[in-house]
């Protein structure tokens, strides 16, 4: 569905181009050695670009938290290259339900919360006796972890709470000054973070919606969905803050088709108040005169919306506007992940009426001033 990745050449010495279609063993080796030496390497996964470090090196882990401005209460995901490395970071054998999910979705964008092995520092898990683990499928990520021979933590390579990066250019804009190496492999495949789940026997609870849908999880034999994530907000999962993945411009969210734009009462916020409405090309609303429409894609192509979401939010964020209104999809499947990101981008402020929306925009812009 998507074009192949475009790899660019950047003049800065810490940016190296590695095509996922033709891996450069020497460059992979250099980056792997940097990770073993405790340095920070930004690299692509199939979801977003990660800020990688040795998951067993507390000094390197501290550098990741400092570079991102990430609070120590937000745990990191440990990335591995296969089941043997999983066993080095968890306590005991992989539970049967976890093995079933690994067989179905690894390598791929699924993160499982498992018992922490003693080799993993508590700094990685925010003091919890559980550890988030996944096995990425991106060829560069897989080769890098395998060559390094160590588990790698790789939170998104952006400033904490900012929009996640889906290209090396996004990484350069946010963290180019703190990365020892940035691997440029073009745009990422999914554009949304991994799905995070926890297990209790065969019961699976979704802690964060992502590229693997609830429906896909439910299709695995022997797995029961105990909670589909609609009421879960767990500190064991990365990205659980009410404000996350956020533009710099004040942002609020609306439920699709819930606002009566035919009546603009309360929404004409003054000639100087320009508002961008980020919605969908197949249900573009009639907007107040000081507003402008920017498309996030078509709901008929929900995978493309997810793939381009962060790219579009970053594009929109640099346009001139007092506020951004993002429209939730209201769709099942991947729509849950998209709506989770848009809700947190808006600081979990969702308006359902014109009056609520006007109030939310006024409060958001006032807080930003």
Shape: globular
Instruction: Report the CATH C-level class of the largest domain.
Output: Alpha Beta
Distance between the termini: 42 Å
Number of strands: 16
- CA radius of gyration is 21 Å
What low-confidence regions span 5 or more consecutive residues with pLDDT below 50? 1-9
What would the average pLDDT be, to the nearest integer? Answer: 91
Per CATH, the architecture of the largest domain is Alpha-Beta Complex
Given helix and strand content, the structural type is alpha/beta
Structurally, the number of domains stands at 2
Outline the structure in words.
The protein has 2 domains: 213 residues, DHBP synthase; 118 residues, Threonylcarbamoyl-AMP synthase, C-terminal domain (Rossmann fold, 3-Layer(aba) Sandwich), CATH 3.40.50.11030. The protein is 29% helix and 20% strand. It is built from 11 helices and 16 strands. An 11-stranded mixed beta sheet has the order 1-8-2-3-7-4-6-5-9-10-11, with helices on both faces. Strands 14-13-15-12-16 form a 5-stranded parallel beta sheet, sandwiched between helices. A hairpin with a 2-residue loop joins β9 and β10.
Summarize the SSE layout with pairings.
Blueprint lengths: L14 E3 L7 H12 L4 E4 L4 E6 L3 H11 L8 E3 L3 H4 L9 H10 L4 E6 L6 H4 L4 E5 L4 H10 L3 E2 L14 H8 L5 E4 L10 E6 L2 E6 L5 H5 L5 E4 L23 E5 L19 E5 L11 E5 L6 H16 L5 E6 L5 H12 L4 E2 L2 H15 L1
Parallel strand pairs: 1-8, 2-8, 4-6, 5-9, 10-11, 12-15, 12-16, 13-14, 13-15
Antiparallel strand pairs: 2-3, 3-7, 4-7, 5-6, 9-10
